[in-house]
Amino acid sequence: MNIFYDENMPFAAEFFADLGQLTAFSGRSLSPTAICDADVLLVRSITKVNEALLKENKNLRFVGTATIGVDHIDQPYLSDRNVNFHSAPGCNAVSVAEYVLSALVVLAERYLISLSSLTVGIVGAGNTGSRLSEKLSALNIKHVLCDPLLADNPADKREFVPLEQALNCDVVSLHVPLTRKGKHATYHLLNAERLAQFNDNQILINACRGEVIDNAALLKMKQQGHPLKLVLDVWENEPNILSALISYCEITTAHIAGYSLEGKARGTEILYRALCEQLDILPNKRLADFLPAPAIGKVEIKQAFDEILLNQLVKMVYDVRRDDAIFRQQINVQGFDHIRKTYPTRREFSSITVKLNNGLSSDAPHQLGFNK
Ligand SMILES: NC(=O)c1ccc[n+]([C@@H]2O[C@H](COP(=O)([O-])OP(=O)(O)OC[C@H]3O[C@@H](n4cnc5c(N)ncnc54)[C@H](O)[C@@H]3O)[C@@H](O)[C@H]2O)c1
Ligand SMILES: O=C(O)[C@H](O)[C@H](O)COP(=O)(O)O
């Protein structure tokens, strides 16, 4: 069995070696002839999987994307060809939530804002939005959820607000898939008209898909002097982004919100399990067998919690300013894809054990995701 996989899938060789002949490829430049004899194709979001890519291939049985987003996959085409398709729902949702939290901590310190004074509007309450909601709850940060599709689902008991209410919050964080059709299509969900409603003190965070915000309209608004604070991880038309926007961003990164080692590697593991199931093989490998020990393994807390201490904990694991600095320094030299390919290791809160030796029963660090 010929298994072709994106070179940016951590532990792919370790997971898949026993299942077939492995070939790694560079996701942006994959050609139809390169994969003409693939039985299994494992991609990430930069590879568009459609008729144009697969026209030379007659053998394909399985396509997997080690990502949450699926807007790069022509699923009806795969289904017409009877090729099984799997994505990796939720794989890097914790990583996205930790990115947003780190951005909030950094901005709160930069502008002397207390996080507990803010209300966050989470637009899209699936995996990434829900993980963010849990972490905000752990820090007692007020937030509302907007998700008209889940609001219509009687099984989901959470309270939802209309979009306009979420967009009015001090912080607006976007967590929707990119969709172009239907009543709740998200392409340019934030168009010029909605952007114009933002007030001077708001923070807008986009760590879902660039096309959810009309980037040209956003640039125009910033060029006209709107003080909206921007955190942009994703861009329209990656990797050829609207670079004039960069200088208007408080925090800006190269689509790496989901790039914790655990988040990326969970995507590989989910596809490994899905392929094993298709092949009727019992999976015998687990991600825990491959993850290295983190640089910092254990922390002991010896004083009562306050916002400063919790913010320190967040930044100790992941300070988004590192990725912002790399982006600003390298975007015009090495380019968008290079920054992503050479992403330095980042671990999730769960890689660190936090021991409480402060006489308090408060469990905030563990609710935030740190290991007990
Ligand atoms: N920046 C990154 O590194 C990164 C990482 C992971 C995911 N993503 C992107 O984030 C998206 C969301 O991820 P997820 O795991 O939360 O997906 P998910 O499918 O679990 O949840 C998405 C939610 O958005 C809701 N939704 C759809 N249209 C909406 C609309 N118009 N208004 C409000 N809500 C709407 C859906 O009902 C769903 O509950 C992914 O599709 C992917 O494109 C980006
Ligand atoms: O949809 C996702 O899971 C994320 O956007 C993911 O982090 C994208 O990473 P890529 O596949 O482009 O490496």
UniProtKB/TrEMBL annotation:
The gene is pdxB. Keywords: Cytoplasm, NAD, Oxidoreductase, Pyridoxine biosynthesis. The active site is at 209, 238, 255 (proton donor). Homodimer. Its main location: cytoplasm. GO terms for molecular function: 4-phosphoerythronate dehydrogenase activity; NAD binding; protein dimerization activity. This is Erythronate-4-phosphate dehydrogenase. GO terms for biological process: 'de novo' pyridoxal 5'-phosphate biosynthetic process; pyridoxine biosynthetic process. NAD(+) binds at residues 147, 233, 258. Residues 290-369 form the Erythronate-4-phosphate dehydrogenase dimerisation domain. Transmembrane segments: none annotated. It catalyses: 4-phospho-D-erythronate + NAD(+) = (R)-3-hydroxy-2-oxo-4-phosphooxybutanoate + NADH + H(+). It is found in: Cytoplasm. It comes from Cognaticolwellia beringensis. Belongs to the D-isomer specific 2-hydroxyacid dehydrogenase family. PdxB subfamily. Residues 34-269 form the D-isomer specific 2-hydroxyacid dehydrogenase catalytic domain.
